[in-house]
């Protein structure tokens, strides 16, 4: 199992190519439709996949938390993922150890199928398909659109806030004062496909007194930025008077954040707008790739004060 993930650092080379690798797994049968669906999460978020270790039950644990496991000396909570999504499983055989928003936890799943390399263009937003809040997007695993298998890409940030609210909601409020000034009439343009993340971002920007425009994919953000650039040209004003900063997630359907950033920085009309990458994919590899596509800042999700400091630093340095 770990052989599948041994070369995860090399997969960082996919950054900026609008490609990623999806870990595909099974959770059991959905009793509503009597179907065994495929689910997926980005390999970057998986530290390792293990045969299910010993789980120690914890009295008073939140619903869907099986207990804790000792993984290489680190005690982590273990979440019963089939229960969360409403699947009936024949057994929890694999533990996916993941890192999100600076926190490590395990997801118990029925079985791991494969790792599939995909272009983000083969990943479609789930919101338009009315799939539900636990799924952020749908990935076509095969080339043929008509016969391709679909994997439901889970909104793990949403799940973690639902299952472990004390761990993931404690830092949702600004603690410090931040003075950020942008031109009157200008906005922060942000892109994030997670509904939970969009709510967090908007709450923080409102608290900072900053106007914003929200988009759900890198492609949508780029199209909106080009339209704002055209509006600025028509009005005879600099684009920075329209858009003070672009804030982008990394994992998004159609176009990822690295690719969005590269398109902005390679475009003579758009390149002066600063870009801050905002992602739950923390780590030095991603920060290095952010620099390689000329991003102006990188901040790991989600602490409002860290986000505010990153925005302040980048705006004040431009």
TrEMBL record:
Residues 187-316 form the Response regulatory domain. Residues 19-165 form the CheW-like domain. It comes from the Bacteria. InterPro entries: Chemotax_regulator_CheV, CheW-like_dom_sf, CheW-lke_dom, CheY-like_superfamily, Sig_transdc_resp-reg_receiver. The modification 4-aspartylphosphate is found at residue 249. GO terms for biological process: chemotaxis; phosphorelay signal transduction system. Keywords: Phosphoprotein. The keyword Phosphoprotein applies. Pfam families: CheW, Response_reg. This is Chemotaxis protein CheV. It comes from Acidithiobacillus thiooxidans (Thiobacillus thiooxidans). The lineage of its organism: Bacteria, Pseudomonadati, Pseudomonadota, Acidithiobacillia, Acidithiobacillales.
């Amino acid at each position: 199992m770990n052989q599948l993930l041994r070369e995860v650092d090399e997969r960082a080379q996919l950054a900026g190519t609008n490609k990623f690798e999806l870990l595909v797994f099974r959770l059991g049968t959905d009793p509503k439709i009597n179907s065994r669906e495929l689910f997926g999460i980005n390999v970057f978020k998986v530290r390792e996949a293990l045969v299910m270790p010993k789980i120690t039950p914890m009295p008073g644990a939140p619903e869907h938390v099986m207990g804790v496991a000792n993984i290489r000396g680190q005690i982590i909570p273990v979440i019963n993922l089939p229960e969360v999504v409403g699947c009936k499983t024949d057994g929890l055989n694999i533990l996916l150890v993941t890192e999100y928003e600076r926190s490590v936890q395990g997801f118990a799943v029925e079985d791991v199928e494969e790792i599939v390399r995909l272009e983000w263009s083969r990943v479609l937003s789930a919101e338009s398909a009315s799939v539900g809040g636990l799924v952020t997007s749908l990935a076509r695993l095969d080339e043929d659109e008509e016969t391709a298998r679909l994997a439901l890409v889970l909104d793990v940030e949403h799940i973690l806030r639902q299952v472990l609210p004390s761990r993931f909601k404690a830092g949702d409020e600004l603690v410090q004062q931040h003075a950020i000034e942008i031109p009157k009439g200008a906005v922060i343009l942000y892109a994030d496909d997670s509904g939970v993340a969009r709510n967090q971002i908007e709450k923080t920007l409102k608290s900072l007194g900053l106007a914003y425009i929200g988009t759900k994919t890198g492609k949508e953000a780029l199209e909106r930025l080009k339209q704002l650039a055209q509006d600025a040209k028509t009005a005879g004003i600099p684009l920075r008077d329209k858009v003070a900063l672009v804030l982008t997630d990394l994992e998004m359907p159609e176009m990822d954040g690295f690719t969005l950033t590269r398109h902005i920085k390679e475009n003579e009309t758009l390149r002066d707008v600063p870009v801050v990458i905002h992602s739950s994919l923390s780590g030095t590899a991603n920060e290095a790739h952010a620099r390689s596509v000329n991003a102006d800042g990188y901040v790991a999700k989600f602490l409002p004060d860290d986000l505010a400091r990153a925005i302040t630093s980048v705006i004040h340095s431009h």
